[in-house]
Each structure stands twice: as C-alpha cells, then as structure tokens.
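Why does residue order matter? Because the sequence determines the fold. Keep that principle in mind as you read this record.
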Amino acid sequence: MVDGDIKKLQLAVEYANDDRQKVDLLNELALKFNRVDPNQALATAETALHLAKSIAYPVGYARSLAHLTGAYGRLAQYEKALALGDQALQLFETLDDAEGHGQLLMNIAWVCRALGDYAGALEHLMTCLHIYQRAGNVQGEIRALNGIGVMNWHLGDQENARKYYQDVIDLSQKYQLKETEGIALMNMGVLYCDGLGEYEKSIEYYEASDRIFIEVGNLRARNDVQLNLGVAFGNLGNYERSVEHYQRCLKAVRKLGDRSGEAHVLENIGALYNQQERYEDALTYLQQALQIYEETAEKPRWATAHRALSEVYEAMGDLGHALEHYKRFYELDREVVNDNSERKFQNLQVVYQVEQSRKEAELLRVKNAELEELNRELEDQNVKLVEAQTQLIQAQADRIEKEKLATLGKLSAMISHKLNNILSGLTAPIEHIMRFEPLNEALIWEAWESDDEGHYLDAYLKHYRAEYNLQRRAAEIVQEAATRAKLLVHDLQGLVGEQSGKLGRLNLVEVFREVYRIHQDELDHAHIVEHFDTDTLEVTAKRGEVGQIFIGLLMNAVDAVQNCSEPTIDVFMRPLNDGVEIQVVDNGCGMPDSVKAHLFEPFFTTKTETGSGLGLYTIQRIVMAYQGTITVESQPGHGTTVTVWFPQGDQSIPLFTT
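Structure:
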C-alpha cells in the first residue's frame, strides 16, 4: 500500500502546477518515505525545504524541517536531528499548523527516547497530545497516547504502559486505524516478553502486528517485529529461529542505513551467542554494536553493550578486559541514572498530567461523537476526490505523451519532405553527368589529318565545350544540394541533437535562423520580417530549449495570420536591461481578455482539433527557469504581441529541469 501511495505522490509532484502545492506533496512524500527508507525521506525533505525557502512558504518550510528531524533521527544522527527540531519548534510557535507541529514533537520525542531522555520525550508527547486534542485529530491523539505508553514502559510502570497500549488498540479498531493498532500490538508483545516473561504470548502479539504491517506496507515497523521475534525465540531456547529473525532484520536495517537499528540487532545477536557459549562470535557482534553506539552516543544501549562485553570476557577468563568494560558500563550507567534522577520529579509531574489528559480526552471524545458521521462522509468524499485527481493526472500524462509523439511525427515528416526535395533535384543532373561521353580521340585525329581548314574539328570542340558546361552546371547543382543537406543536418543537430541539451553561451539570432530554415515550408505562408539590432545577441541557455521557444512562438503566429490577406510576422530582437528582448508581432485576429487569461494554463487551447494546450505553458516554464519573463498583449482584430526577455549573463542558469 505504501509503495502505491508513494508512486501516486511522485506522479502528483511531477505534474504539480503550483509551487506551494508541490512543497506540500513533497512533505507528504517524505512522511511516507520515513516508513520505508529514511535516506529517501531525507532527500525528499531537503528538496521541499529548498523550494519552500525560495518561494517564502513558512508552513512548508517548517514541515520540511520536521521531516528532516525524523529522517536524521531514523539514521541515528541525533545531534543534527535535535538542532533542526529546535529550529522547527520556533517556527511552529508562530504558525497555525497542528498536524505539522504534532508530527515534529513526535519526531523529537523518539530522538529523546533513543538518547535515554525519557522525561524530555514525555514532555514533548504531552504537548503533542494537547495539540492534537485541540485540533480534534483523533489519529494524532492515538499516536501520542501510544508514545506515552512506551515512555511509561521505559520508566518501569508496566501496568500503566499496558493500559495505554490496550486503549490504543481499542481506539485504533474503533476508527479503523490499522497502523497504530499494529504498533500497539507490537509494544504489547514487548511488554509480555521483556516485562512478564510470557514469550509465547508475546510471539502471538508480534505475529498479529506483522500481519498488519505487511498489509499497510510499513517496512520499518516490520524490522522491529523481526528483532522482537528474535528476542522471544531466543528466550524460548529456539536459537535457530532466533538467528533467522535477527539476520533478516540486520539485512533490512543495513539496506535502510538505520545505524541505531543495526547496532541493536548486533547487540542481540552477540547476547544470543553468549548464551550458547560461542564467545568469539559474541565478541565480534558486540564490538560492532559498541562501535556504532559510540558514534550515535546512545548512552543506555552503549552502557548495556559494555556490560554484555564484560560478561563475555569474564566467561572466557579474560578478567582484565571484563573489568575494563564493566567500569565503562558503570560510568555510563551512572550518567544515565543521574540524568533520570534529576528528572524524577519532572517525570511524576508529566505522568500526572498524562492521566489528566486521558480524562480530558475522553470528555472531548464524547463531545465529538456527533461529528464522527460527518467526518466519515468527508473522508468518503476525500477518497473520491483523490481518485478523480489521480485519473486527471494520468489523463494529463497520457496527453503529454501523445503530444510528444505528435511532435516527433511532425518533425519526421518535415525532415523527410526536405530531404525528398533535395534528392529529387539531384536525379536529372546526375543522369546528365552519367551520360556525358569522353573526348572522341579517333574523331579528333581523323579531323586533324583530313580537315585542312579545321572546320569539322572546330565544330566538334565547340559542341564538346557546350556539353562540358552543361556537365559543370549539373555538378554545381549536386554540390548545392549537398550543401543544403549538410546545413539541414547542422541545424537539426543544434536544435534536437546531443548538443541541444548542453548549457552554454549561444547566439539567439543564429538559433532563430536555424529554426526558420528547418521550418521554412510551414512558415512560408506568412511574410516574416527580421528587425534585429545586431547579428550577435548572446545568452547562457540550452540551444534546444531556446529553439523550442522560437518554434512555438512562430507556429502560433502563423496560425493566427492564416486568414489574413497579407499575413505578416515581425520578429524583433534587441539588448535590454542586461538581457535580450524578443518580440513576435503578428497582424492576425487577436484574442479577447477571456482567452488571454488562460493562455499559460496547461491543456488550454483554442485549436480544438490540433492543439494540445501545452505550447505556451511549456514556453513559460522554460523562460521562468532561466529567470526570464514572458508577456502577451492582444486585442480582437489588432493582432498579438508576445514579448520574452532573457537575462544575458550566467544568472540565467536554469532553476530546474524543464
């Protein structure tokens, strides 16, 4: 399901018309990627961040920071995650965005949990709960309650943790929220395994949660299930099954780049081999885990890794190393204990506040009962809207593909027509050259010996010279045709060949004339007049994209003047404001304001049979990518003027691929 959602979002991003909408879609995509691939989530959130910054979109920018916090947390880069989280918190304080604010607090809470700061995690989750309650966001509220249950577990309150997990399971089933139900079932399994020692029961919970994660496509949560199953089977003495689950999990977390998860799996495998008295194998895995914990600075797990290594060395009789690791465990454990002791009073306050919030949440839920049916109806409508939007996006993609094929067909037909004209003009002169006979030497000697006055020889030579001149003219015609063919190939290579996509300095006048020569047959319907201040007007751009602009503007102008008695298109080019201004002016039918207002919208066209509605839309995207401008002036009966301005210097490097 997640893969399908990701593909739909990627398609929606590709065809998004509005930059704000694109930022929102990228942020939604980053949230989806966080479940399956934190590296992809990181890249997507960074793209959203840069775009949001460039268009001054604070909500999108803050949400991008929130997703970056989550991605860096998944990758165990906790300092960077917390720094970005603090920056985002300051922004959300000024914004009205409950969903984004709540998601950020959840991400920060999990980073605090990884670092052993359970009180800090509870504080953030508590704030998150209040935000979701005020916004009436039931799904967010359930996720926050689940997190609070986890923190109760870490603080040693198993009974309260179990109550929270059961509440989350019941609420998730009530509101049909599969994913939060699966997470709560997995957490319940951890409680039965690590807290109560009921391993068979814990496996039932793990397998139930795994079925849900398979259904919703949450790969990251499935990795957690595999790890927990490894622990449960290890405690039951089924080492083969245990290692099988651990190795499966290890392969997955390494593929995702989840360093913290990798270390946790390595530590568990090391502990398992220690139980089996396979001490060398245990040392290998535990030392790898320790190295990662040192990098990520996860004190609680860092300490347990030292303790596990101490136990292995002691079993091996290496008391020196055993003592060394135990001392390090003791130091780290004291730091964790002291940190938690300082926050003990704060923890008690937070737990009290959580209990109060549970009561308030229940009252709020009762008040909102009447809205549930309306919410369901709105969700149904939303599903229908999403389906309609997906169908529209697919239809747009199909239309774009048809336009590409149609353009390719037109170009192929035009090239074939020009080459046929060139080749058909070669047939007669080549045949003439092939029929040309060499000098008749025998006839010349005969005339030399018998024609004393030379009349016959003179007549023969005169005839031969005339034939020779005809042959020379035929050769010149062949040479001219070859030059025309060579020029056609040169122009095509410039506009659609390998060089057309390379960014560099180019002469707009030269590109315009290349376009005119290639499309001359189609453009000869109108009288095209050049008004260029100079024959050298350079900009930094891609030749193919500039050619596309000229082709589009000239073809539109030719269509506009097709019913004129004296169709004329004037093309102006001149330096202006550190750039070059291009104007294409036709004396065609013009257009009303009602048409002009939609010119740059994709798929809008007045050519009902032949137009795709992508011409001016594409031209505008190209021009804007080079930080240029395009405007249209037109009145019915008074023709149309399209004005394009390109910056002249290196600042015209495109902002995105068109």
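Confidence is low (pLDDT under 50) at residues 340-349.
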